[in-house]
Amino acid sequence: MENPPPTIVPRWSRLSFLLSALILLTLLLDVGLRRLPVSRVAFRTWEASRFYPTSIGPLTPNFSFFSPRAYGDLSNLGNRPQYRVYRPERFTTDAFGYRNPPQPEGGGPIRIVLLGDSFIDGAALSDDETLSAQLTSQTGARVYNAAGTSNWEGFAELLARLQVRGAIVILEISEVFITGNLELDSPPGHWAVRGLRRTLPREQYRDVRTLWRIAFGWSQYSPLRIYLTRSFRTLQNDRWLPNPTAAQAITGALDNGHQMLFLTNRMEHLSVAPAAHVEYFVRVRDRLRQTGNELLVVMVPDKYRVYRRFFKRPPGLAPAASSFQNLVPALEKAKIPALDLTPILSEQAARLYPTGQYNFHDDDTHWNAAGVRRTAEAVAVAWRELR
Q1: What is the predicted pLDDT for the residue at 239?
Q2: Other CB atoms within 10 A of residue 190 CB
Q3: In this structure, are residues 128 and 99 in contact, taking their beta carbons and an 8 Å threshold?
Q4: Sign of dihedral through CA atoms 344, 345, 347, 348?
Q5: Which ranges of the chain have pLDDT less than 70?
Q6: Is 31 helix (H, G, I), strand (E, B) or coil?
């Protein structure tokens, strides 16, 4: 008996063909979706502002974005949508890629320059709520927000291009970034770009740097990946799928029944900044003086340190002392002006607490508008004393 002829599987139904077609379709969809404006894809302002930093700053220059439903980083980090507190948020950058709304012409010289991390950048705040905006209101001086400057070389270039002299440079440090907000020795950028900087004239190097940042931003911006990640995280709700990031943000119950989110690793360990860091600030001060400017160090406590006293807890648990308790006297001995915000924000939190108000966002690691206003008042006093 003859064997039946072999069945011919159509090429289009073969697994390898289907996988190849799926990869091609995914690639075309990913490239096509990149034509969407970033503002249509991002749902938080800091996301939308960081894809194309084509100038010297860390953000997209001349960028404006408004979100009517922004929310905090902790609710996102822990994938806890039930704890989101929605709020409108406007985010504007200048031509250098820093968060500064348009300045009126003839505004006078810059008298205050802000350096630091996301607290200075204004994470979870609208333009008019940031520390730079509040300091402008408190002092009447022209304030420039240079938050996000990661290295001395880039900051020195910014000071030169802005022609800043005779200003107070406020270097904000948090409990996480004691000496990391302004690297003094590490060269900026990718190793290939650093090599071109040593070989090309300055103007050509800037053009190459811009092209590099555009290409890098384009490679990082993937709306398809963003949409797929959001969809998958929606399923990771401990009902359909386990939520692997839930433990990164802990719900803290205060003794008045109010609940806040806190970073887990901050609640597990409260550190103290060593006094040895003073040598770093001496170097920063000396370099600033070479540019004709002076230094003021401003220290921001962690949210958990401020609110630990209000937790439901066994009797006798004392409030946490400042993490900067050793650094402050060392800076004073080195004659470097410093302002520890720990007692200032702790006092404000205690004053607001009976009325059900707070100076940090419930769903975010950062301070809210009330905390910024109090900080601006304290910094304005220190600035006037230094003048």
Answers
A1: 84
A2: 12
A3: no
A4: positive
A5: 1-14, 39, 43, 104-106, 186-198, 202, 268, 314-319
A6: helix
Q: What angle do CA 320, 324, 330 make, to 5 degrees?
A: 140
Q: Pick from 314, 312, 319: which is nearest to 254 by CA? A: 312
Residues with Cβ within 8 Å of residue 356, at least 6 apart in sequence? 256, 258
pLDDT for 111 equals 97
Residue the block writes with tokens 């006037």: 384
Q: Are 328 and 341 in contact (CB under 8 A)?
A: no
Identify the H or E element spanning 260: strand 259-263
pTM of the full structure: 0.88
Contacts of 332 (CB under 8 A, 6+ apart): 338
Q: From the CB of residue 325, how many other CB atoms can be counted at a distance below 10 Å?
A: 13
The closest of 122, 128, 168, 169 to 148, measured between CA atoms, is 122
Contact predicate 95/62, CB 8 Å:
yes
Q: Where are the alpha helices (DSSP H) in the chain?
A: 15-33, 38-41, 45-48, 73-77, 118-121, 131-139, 152-162, 191-199, 202-220, 223-235, 264-268, 278-290, 303-307, 327-333, 342-352, 369-386
Q: Are strands 168-174 and 294-300 parallel, antiparallel or unpaired?
A: parallel
Question: Residues near 228 by Cβ (< 8 Å), separated by ≥ 6?
Answer: none
Contact (Cβ atoms closer than 8 angstroms) between residue 50 and residue 59? yes
Beta bridge mates, 110:
142
Q: Chain-centre distance of CA 127, in angstroms? A: 14
Dihedral, 209, 211, 215, 217 alpha carbons, nearest 10: 60
Which 8-state DSSP code applies to residue 342?
Answer: H
Do 112 and 167 meet the contact criterion of CB atoms below 8 Å apart?
Answer: yes
Look at residue 27 in the predicted model and tell me its pLDDT: 85
pLDDT attached to residue 217: 73
The pLDDT value recorded for residue 62 is: 94
Report residue 186 as tokens.
């590490």
Strand partners of residue 360: 367
pLDDT score recorded for residue 221: 77
Contact assessment for residue 241 and residue 235, using Cβ atoms and an 8 Å cutoff: yes
